[in-house]
Design brief:
402 residues, eight-stranded mixed beta sheet, five-stranded mixed beta sheet, binds adenosine-5'-diphosphate
């Protein structure tokens, strides 16, 4: 009897959710199952599972008061699924990898290093390490690969990595790292497939979701990105502030008695679109309310204005622009936001074809505009699966160089 084709499990652990998917390791990397546990630590924690075709198969309330319990539940559930017998490797999204510039197989040494660098990302790394260790405990023979969200940006020149503070901090690793690297790597693979010469040119990638950032890419390599030492930097986001005046923490400490942990909480969870609107972190809600609520209108204005400024700044860093790519929840689905971002950018050669834009077409620029503007549906999970296949030489990647 023919044995089942090998599969790869991908794990993407967030603050209140864990997404997972199972892919064939073969030519097509097709997705067999995808699901998530969300609202971890809140009321109504739910396991949702979709089939290959995206059809909902399971939606079930579970008890998971904390991340550890949710991980235990997920491992029990996965182990009980027939497809799990075909899983030959697990890939994890690891938000921070410091100097690592490629996905790597998890070893004792790598785990020890992840523990050591936890102070650089105390919000994400402990949970991600917890997930890796839970798999080691239950399935010690299953190879695991860490895919770092910072890796894509390790190619940035030193001038883009430097933070203008005393050098002694730089020597300890306090520098600009950049994030959303799995999404950017996927977008560049797709661009290469769609238009190989364009992928060698001057490209701006705009990953606009709840977390949002832009990257400037030249000859396929990241030369700059809007996020920095942490993912709170850069562009205004759903609940993160993005860049702020460095004098603000001192003002808030002196006049409001704000502590460092309170500041951290504010800039990550209470700011951005939520902070400015006072009502919602979700751009769809804000667009719906903008006509009647000036605070919602201001939040949308600020978002579009800042994205436009980052595009202008990166066009300068690149010395011109050939391709602009929109991706993630807002970038892929919000024509009115793309239109507002691009409205004043004609001087850069960015001209939208409004019909194509309103359809979320793959190419939304005019035929005469100098810059090709594209919408590409990003897929971080698929990028993880491909990376695992490459690192472990599974399936079709057995024949390919990394
Ligand atoms: P995450 O970073 O959590 O993966 P997503 O990439 O799913 O986030 O993006 C979520 C954002 O996308 C939300 O602000 C949501 O309102 C926005 N969004 C999704 N669809 C639309 C739409 N049709 N119009 C405007 N905004 C949208």
């Amino acid at each position: 009897m023919k044995s089942a084709p090998p599969c790869i499990l991908t794990i993407n652990g967030g603050s209140s959710s864990i997404r997972f998917a199972v892919y064939d390791a073969g030519e097509t990397s097709s997705r067999r199952v995808a699901g998530k546990i969300d609202r971890i630590g809140l009321s109504g924690t739910t396991l949702t599972v979709n089939s290959e075709a995206g059809k909902p198969q399971v939606s079930r309330r579970i008890a998971a008061a904390d991340h550890g319990t949710a991980v235990g539940f997920l491992l029990d559930w996965l182990s009980s699924q027939p497809i799990f017998e075909s899983v030959k490797a697990v890939g994890h999204r690891v938000v921070h990898g410091m100097k690592h510039s490629d996905p790597e197989r998890v070893t004792r040494k790598l785990l020890a290093e992840l523990h050591r660098i936890t102070p650089y990302d105390p919000d994400h790394l402990p949970r991600e390490i917890g997930l890796i260790e839970a798999f080691i405990e239950r399935h010690p023979k299953l190879p695991q690969v860490a895919c770092f969200d910072t890796a894509f940006h390790r190619s940035m020149p030193r001038v883009a990595k430097l933070l203008p503070i005393p050098r002694r901090y730089g020597a300890k690793g306090v520098e600009r790292y950049g994030f959303h690297g799995l999404s950017y790597a996927y977008l560049m693979e797709e661009l290469r497939r769609l238009d190989a010469p364009a992928a060698k040119g001057r490209v701006i990638l705009a990953h606009l979701g709840n977390g949002a950032s832009l990257a400037a890419v030249h000859r396929g390599k990241s030369i700059d990105t809007s996020m920095g030492f942490t993912p709170a930097a850069g562009l205004v986001m759903s609940t993160r502030s993005g860049d702020l005046d460095p004098g603000l923490p001192y003002y808030l400490a002196r006049n409001e008695g704000m502590t460092a942990p309170q500041f951290q909480q504010m800039v990550n969870h209470e700011s951005g679109l939520l902070g400015v609107s006072g009502t919602s972190s979700d751009l769809r809600d804000l667009c719906a309310n903008a006509a009647t609520d000036v605070r919602a209108a201001e939040a949308v204005d600020l978002f579009c204005y800042q994205v436009r400024k980052w595009i202008g700044s990166f066009a300068a860093a690149l010395g011109g622009l050939d391709t602009l790519v929109f991706a993630a929840g807002i970038g892929e689905n919000a024509p009115q936001i793309r239109k507002r971002i691009c409205r004043e950018l004609g001087f850069l050669g960015i001209e939208l074809n409004l019909k194509r834009n309103s359809r979320n077409a793959a190419l939304i620029s005019t035929d005469t505009g100098r810059v090709k503007v594209r919408v590409i549906r990003t897929d971080e999970e698929l990028m993880i699966a491909r990376s695992v296949a490459r690192v472990l030489k599974l399936g079709s990647y057995r024949r390919l160089k990394p």
